[in-house]
Design a protein that fits this description.
Low-confidence stretches: 1-17, 24-33, 425-439, 515-525
Organism: Aromatoleum toluolicum
InterPro entries: Peptidase_S8/S53_dom, Peptidase_S8/S53_dom_sf, Peptidase_S8_Asp-AS, Peptidase_S8_His-AS, Peptidase_S8_Ser-AS, Peptidase_S8_subtilisin-like, Peptidase_S8_subtilisin-rel, Peptidases_S8_Autotransporter
Number of strands: 37
Keywords: Hydrolase, Protease, Serine protease, Signal
CATH architecture of the largest domain: 3-Layer(aba) Sandwich
Pfam families: Peptidase_S8 (PF00082)
Number of domains: 2
Protein name: S8 family serine peptidase
Helix content: 10-25%
């Protein structure tokens, strides 16, 4: 049957009576058998079905429905009411929930109808409904007195977060209603009101109060669209309330009705509870949200309709529940020591070989799972472990590229023993002028000056920095890896030799390198500092043993791991001891060995990572290096090594895990074991020989067992480089 809402005024009650804003209702003649999803296109239209699939159902939220009442024993609503009683504002009493007209039952079902029980279900199916009757049963109209009383009851009920007003009048509602609305605003309630069914240029009241400054953005005016997202012919447009106006499906909406039945109804009355249900989803999931924030989220995430941006017809646009339940703005990581936040994207860490094994195990164990918050301080489950990346792949192609680069090493040895080495790269542009426009760049240099009394001064830059110490000058695989933590540094050192005993001391410092960066073309300025002392003792002409101590301070990294702000350590200091030895097996063949151990302390983070404690690490290398083996001028290096590896240590992290109803962040302190779960062994062969005065051949082979200290990880690489000059 067709139902036309009563529009008669009760003159003694108010000059502007309110009416339930339903255009028409068509009762279902037979039970629906196609299922709830098939009959409820509204969910698909506003994408609330996708929000439900993500786990958002409105549990914990309560919506006050000021209407004709609610049929409490309807199968869709018998478990959805917040209590066993309904407040009847027309007689100022709590009574059993009933509905003489069906309008309120229909509205309540759209908001919170239960699932799996019939032929419709609510936008927030796990929310609760507080029914408040404001319409007189005999007239079908509501007075300003009953509406004000109903608003005061809703505002005074602590559990209520959202008030649904599927009603309206053609003019302002007077002081009692306005005061009641103001009280609801002060009580932090969100009011969702129907825009009206007159087909006019602006909403009617109370929806039109949304534009008033005292509303504080806590009133949403709602218009209706059809299944094609076109404004319904009966719906009032946004007009002067455009900034606080949304549209939602309001044509032939299926929901619960009186006598246990169901009905399709049309009107802004039906669109309004769709928005109220979306607000309940937000309130149930994030109870810390203020009413104005809930409205702002719904406005910001709406799907734009009509003219681009906010317009006088569709206002903010079509409600988009899926988008409303997703982060708004930039996700951030709350910090435990202050209200400051850092970007979620800064929770990234490129681990070193030393740290990867332990961090990887912690990631797999879920130790980095927590929350990030959006611009409204809503928490979203986040696994920060997804930002922790494995070490850069040690590719043979990089080594081949180095072997194939047009590098020219110039070495000069003076009579007093002073030595000068320069590495120059020659880059030739493409094109006809390539032969004439070659660009030469100094990429590394080393100078050792012999002074009187067995003294030396040593300077080095680029890849040759640190080559003065230990076995680095013998082969790069035998260099102390801890010195590599002070990357992009320049070397300044002093040496003294007395008979079989020699002493060296110096620093590697990125600050010393800054001037070189400006002079040459190197782009990376970051790095650290290392203070080094070394004592060597010659056991005759063919052998040497030595002991080296280094104090390494890293900048923007820890043990080679480089992290964004969320996982960064402000500083990391490592003290290391290295023992090394070399022995000449023959005139042109050298056997060498190195073992390094370190302890990392003085580590303090500035975000999630609080500190690293008890961190110990080690590395070793063995090498057989020879010259003139197969032909004059060739060189080979056979090495067995284990890269820097953590043997002990824990990291303390302060992980945000929840946001309280008061908006405060809950942190959980966790400890992460950093020790590697296995040991990498790398076997490498590097052979190079000249073929002629202008050409050479290089062969590289490498195999790793338990690569990156991860048990069972293996790789093998090989390559050949032929180089010639034209």
């Amino acid at each position: 049957m067709r139902h036309y809402p009563t529009l008669l005024a009760i003159a003694l009650a108010t000059a502007f009576p309110l009416s339930a804003l339903a255009e028409d209702a068509v009762r279902q003649g037979a039970p629906l058998t196609s299922g709830e999803i098939a009959w409820n296109r509204v969910h698909v239209q506003v994408k609330s079905d996708l929000a439900h699939a993500a786990g958002y159902t409105g549990r914990g939220a309560t919506v006050a429905v000021l209407d004709t009442g609610v049929q409490g024993n309807h199968i869709e609503l018998d478990t959805q009411l917040s209590g066993t009683r309904m407040y009847d504002a027309t007689i100022r009493k709590w009574i059993a929930p009933t509905d003489g007209g069906g309008h309120g039952t229909h509205v309540a079902g759209i908001i919170a109808g239960s699932t799996g029980t019939g032929y419709s279900y609510g936008i927030a199916p796990d929310a609760k409904i507080l029914p408040i009757k404001v319409f007189a049963s005999d007239t079908g109209t509501a007075s300003s007195t009953s509406l004000a009383a109903g608003l005061k009851t809703a505002a005074g009920t602590r559990a209520v977060a959202v008030i649904n007003l599927s009603l309206g009048a053609g003019g302002p509602l007077g002081g009692s209603v306005e005061n009641a609305l103001r009280s609801a605003i002060t009580a932090d309630k969100l009011i969702v009101a129907a825009a009206g069914n007159e087909g006019g240029d602006a909403p009617i009241w109370p929806a039109r109060y949304a534009k008033e400054s005292w509303a504080k953005g806590q009133i949403i005016a709602v218009g209706a669209v059809d299944a094609n997202n076109q404004l319904a012919s009966f719906s009032n447009r946004a007009g002067d309330t455009a900034n606080w106006y949304l549209v939602a499906p309001g044509v032939s909406v299926l929901s619960s009705y009186n006598n246990g039945g169901y009905a399709f109804m049309s009107g802004t009355s039906m669109a309004t509870p769709v928005v109220a249900g979306a607000a309940a989803l937000l309130e149930g999931s994030w109870p810390q949200l203020k009413a104005g924030q809930v409205a702002s989220i719904l406005f910001q995430t709406a799907t734009d309709l009509g003219d681009p941006g906010v317009d006088a017809t569709y206002g903010r646009g079509l409600l988009n529940v899926e988008r409303a339940m997703q982060p708004v703005g930039t996700l951030a990581v709350p910090l435990g020591t202050s209200p400051k936040k850092v970007r979620r994207s800064s929770a990234a860490l490129r681990s070193s070989v030393a740290s990867w094994s332990g961090l990887r195990a912690a990631v797999v164990d879920g130790r980095f799972r927590g929350i990030a918050v959006d611009d409204f301080n809503r928490d979203f489950a986040t696994d920060f472990g997804t930002g922790i990346r494995a070490p850069a792949v040690e590719r043979i192609s990089d080594a081949l590229d180095m072997a194939g680069r047009s590098l020219q090493f110039t070495e000069q040895v003076h009579a007093d023993g002073s030595r000068f080495v320069a590495a120059v790269e020659e880059r030739r542009p493409q094109g006809l002028r390539a032969a004439h426009d070659a660009h030469r760049s100094l990429i590394a240099s080393s100078a050792v000056f012999s002074l009187a009394g067995g003294q030396e001064l040593a300077f080095a830059t680029g890849s040759l920095a640190g080559s003065y110490f230990g076995l680095a000058g013998t082969d790069h695989n035998l260099a102390n890896p801890y010195l590599g933590l002070a990357r992009t540094s320049a070397q300044l050192a002093f040496g003294l030799t007395r008979d079989a005993l020699s002493f060296k001391a110096g620093v590697l410092d990125a600050g010393l390198n800054a001037a070189m960066v400006r002079q040459h073309e190197w782009s990376e300025v970051g790095g650290g500092r290392a203070a080094i002392t070394e004592l060597n003792y010659a056991l005759g002409r063919d052998s040497l043993i030595g002991l080296q101590y280094a104090d390494v301070a890293e900048r923007e990294s820890w043990l080679g791991s480089v992290a964004g702000d969320a996982l960064a350590l402000e500083r990391a200091g490592t003290r290391t001891i290295t023992a090394h030895a070399r022995y000449h097996v023959g005139r042109d063949t050298l056997l060498a060995a190195r073992y390094s151990a370190g302890r990392t302390a003085d580590t303090h983070g500035k975000a999630l990572l609080g500190s690293a404690e008890g961190v110990r690490s080690e590395s070793f290398a063995l090498g057989l290096i020879g010259h003139h083996g197969l032909t004059r001028g060739d060189r080979f290096a056979l090495t067995l090594s284990s890269p820097l590896r953590l043997t002990a240590g824990t990291a303390r992290i302060s992980m945000p895990v929840a946001i309280t109803a008061a908006g405060d962040t809950v942190f959980e302190s966790r400890r992460i074991a950093l020790a590697a779960t296995s040991r990498e062994l790398k076997l490498g062969l590097d052979y190079a020989r000249p073929l002629s005065a202008a050409s050479s051949l290089s062969v590289l082979l490498a195999t790793r067992h338990n690569a990156n200290h991860v048990a069972g990880e293996r790789d093998m690489q090989s390559g050949v480089v032929y180089r010639t000059a034209f």
